């Protein structure tokens, strides 16, 4: 107890009279300088009068000195606030004027002594009040040079600041009870105006634990103004779990993005939305991301592009599956949806809560075995998968605004990332459910009214402003994604520029992906084929001269044989199955040459018509056209004397028999591929 009391006494300056005296002296010390200054001026006036009383030369010198000191005080105080600068100038002017009068006329002559006794204490007290007010506001003077006052936040304080190359960060404390972080966010344009900087150079990152504290970030020089060309992938042969480098930030640091999750880092897997107006550099942003993906060893990509691969043709050999827009994209969406539960089931059976690089390798670890006995199963690995839909507005118009909702909500746990690229991700094009399931966004220049469709409100409040660029700065973007520090969300970046000189490197990268990239695992491939059938054939093998996606594969040539060499008769192939001893069938209506008013050709019987219809579905499937409707049978109906209404009824029957599935669009049906053994799908009998 005695030691505790001694510590309290020591902390409070001691006990008794000596303790009180020490406390008062410590409290009075900050207020003594103005009074000491006033006393010093009085003493100087008395000594000066003894030497220069009545001297004309001294009068001129003292007058000039007084003016010089007053002007110097005003100029020296240029970096101080306006009030402090004016206060200093008034104090200096009054003190130097009184000193001049006291030296020449005497300290007690006329009103000189009265001015000293009244003005000296008044000026000293004014400085005491200033010191007291500053101490009551936190004991620290604002270091903003009057900036906060200019933008309407006079009581805000800028505290500790740290400087980095081309980046300054200052801690801001707003006035408690009267100012919030929202006030600071709304003042960012005025700060940019006060500092004569572009709006994108000033950002504010609120403190998540405080409503009135945050970091003000200022980037004085735009390092993105210089265009940097793409020189090749950043990590050829690396894992898709490693960061993808797609450009640089305005302070020169790399612009990174991750697709798979990482439980150790607390990062979730993600889908990506690429949004930007015409001319904003959306194509270059997509090429940056795609070339990074295709350069990794444990990932496959399926790709839809309604623009016929205009920007991406050099990369075609590297895709696992590439289609154009319309019906082929519709089939791809359905196929990816079928692959998601199959992949999730495989990952669960091998004890993976989410996709990790180890899942892409052969499963030799007993901890990830699907066998009940716990021994290593040796199953083939499952690479990560990217489903990319370029110019997705076309697919959304064709399929409906919720076309990607199922994939967006379920695919992340299956090791699948969905990438959607379009100009305006408004809610009249993309459903709210799909948009809310896209955690990552690359937001390029756009119309100011479209900023809210691309970026979260808190990022816009922090200073992000893609509408300021529009199409004037191609490649400028903001990236919001798991794994990126939140204070980077409002920092602009710029993607690498792709020029015609990059085509050769892109072609070499696609060849590398063919030879060294991952192929679709059996589970994923089977799931895709269960929907797409022959439309999905996997990545073409290198050096095979495979045709471009969507081009029919020619049938193998049949070697010609000379019938005379074998001693046989020359018979037309159509007549090879005719038995010459069998009687000819009875004539049927339409077998004869048509006459005026009579239908040409023979109309098939109901049983024959259904057989021909089933054969037509097989032909569509073999050609890779997996979505059909009555309009696709127009020529077929004309050839077989059948109506479009008859075809519509047969399509409904095929749906009931399991040969077709619904697509969500009236009059459109998706063909269900036949089993691998080729067994037929029975249709309703006549």
From TrEMBL:
GO terms for molecular function: ATP binding; DNA binding. Keywords: ATP-binding, Membrane, Nucleotide-binding, Transmembrane, Transmembrane helix. Residues 252-453 form the FtsK domain. Residues 539-605 are annotated as: Disordered. The chain crosses the membrane at residues 57-77, 89-109. Gene3D superfamilies: P-loop containing nucleotide triphosphate hydrolases. ATP binds at residues 276-283. The keyword Cytoplasm does not apply. Residues 561-582 have a biased composition (Acidic residues). PANTHER family: DNA TRANSLOCASE FTSK, SPORULATION PROTEIN RELATED. This is Sporulation protein SsgA. The lineage of its organism: Bacteria, Bacillati, Actinomycetota, Actinomycetes, Kitasatosporales.
